[in-house]
Design goal:
The chain is about 30% helix and about 20% strand. A hairpin with a 7-residue loop joins strand 10 and strand 11. The protein has 15 helices and 18 strands.
Length: about 475
Amino acid sequence: MKASHPGRRLFILDTNVLMHDPSAIFRFQEHDIFLPMVVLEELDRGKKGMSEVARNARQASRFLDELIAEASKQQIDAGLPLPAPRNGPAAASVLHGRIFFQSETLPQLLPDSLPGNTPDNNILGTALALQQKLPHVKVSLVSKDINLRIKAALLGIRAEEYFNDQALEDVTLLYSGEEALAADFWESHAKEIDSWQEKGRTFYRLTGRGQVHWHPNQCLFMEGDSGFEAMVRLRDGDETVIELTQDYRSQRHAVWGICARNREQNFALNMLLDPELDFVTLLGTAGTGKTLLALAAGLTQTLDRNIYRDIIMTRATVPVGEDIGFLPGSEEEKMTPWMGALMDNLEVLTQTEGGEWGRAVTGDLLRSRIHIHSLNFMRGRTFLNKYVILDEAQNLTPKQMKTLITRAGPGTKVVCLGNIAQIDTPYLTETTSGLTYAVDRFKQWRHSGHITLLRGERSRLADFASAAL
C-alpha cells in the first residue's frame, strides 16, 4: 500500500459500519478507506439470513465486488478510486478518495494486555501497524462499537463514531412541531393580517418575512387567557395562511369517546383527523396518549366516516428483555404479544353500555377492521385506502422507515408513534433513529404533520413515577 495523498485522511472501517450502512464506503468524500481482511471475513459470516443486517452485509459485498470487478492486482494494491455516491448530499462532490484492501500481513503491535485473535483485536493491530507504516497520514478507526473505540483510545488510535447516518447533531435540535407566539403578536402584525371564514373554519393571512421559519402544518399557540391555537396551512413566499384548530377537549366533540386533555393532544387530533395530511408523527414519553389518540382517530375515520377501509397496526418486534422464542399460529397470532398496547387501548375505546354482549359485538366488529401485520413481511406490499399505525417507530433504522412508508398507496395515511428516549435496537441512537430521520425530512412537506406530546395523562401514579424514578 502506497502512502495516501497529502491532506487526505485514512479511515479504517469496522464491520458494523458496513452492516449498518452499506453505502458508507462512498461517504468519506476525498478521504481514503482501508478494509482489513477480518472485516471481509465478518461480512461473509454475516450475510446469511433475511434480517436487515444480513441484507446490508450482502449489499456491502456487492458494492465491493463492483469496485474490483475489472481491477488488476496492481490496481488493487495502489488503491481503487471511489465514485461519488449515487444520491444524497455528497452526490454532487467531485472529490473522491481511494479504497485499499489488506493484501499483505501486517505486523501485530498489540500489547500483552490484549491477548487472543479476536476480530476487534485484529482491527486494532491493523490500525497500529498502519500508523507506524504511514507516520505522515492521519489514520482513524471508524466503528459503531463503543468498547472498540474505548480500546482504540487506550492504545493511542484515533477512533470515531460513524456520523453520516445522523439526521441531527443533537437531539435537542429535533423539530418539536409547535411554537409559542409572542404576547404582542397581534399588535405587531395588525397591519398585515387578513382574516376570513370558510366552511366553518377561520383563517388568517399574514404577509412579511417574520414567518419564513415556520413549517407547513406547524402548530402555533399563545399562552394566557386567549387560548389561541392554530396551524400553518400555506407558505408561499412572504405570505402565510394559518387556520384555527378544532377544539376536541369537550365531550361534545369527542373522537370515538376520547377527548384531548392538553394542548398537544388537541393538536395531535387535528392532524390525525385531517384527510389532507398523509403522514403524521407523534413523539412522546410513555402515557402521553400516542396510541390511544391514533386509534381513536383511526376508528372514527374508518367506521364512522368511511375514509379508510381498514386499520393496519404494526411495530418493530424488539424485546426489552430476553427473547421469548418462536411463537405458534398465524401472523396476527404471532404478533399478539407485541401488541399489548393495542389491546389495552381497545379496552378503553370499547367501553359500551350494552354489557358483555355489546362489548363482544363491538370487539368482533373492531377485529374485522383492525389488522395486525409484521414488519418482516412489508417489502413488496402496497396498502390502498388504509390507516397504518406504526408503533415503537424509534426502533427502526432510516432504511426500514423508508421501506414502510413507501408501502403507502393512494388514500393511505401513515401514523408513526414512538419515544426516542427508549431505543432497544443495537447501534441506533436518538440522532440516528429512523423516527428522528422521518421527522426531520418530512417537516417541510405540506402533507405531513408532527407534534411532540409533553404531558403524561395515564394516571397520577405514572406521572409521578416518570418524574421521580
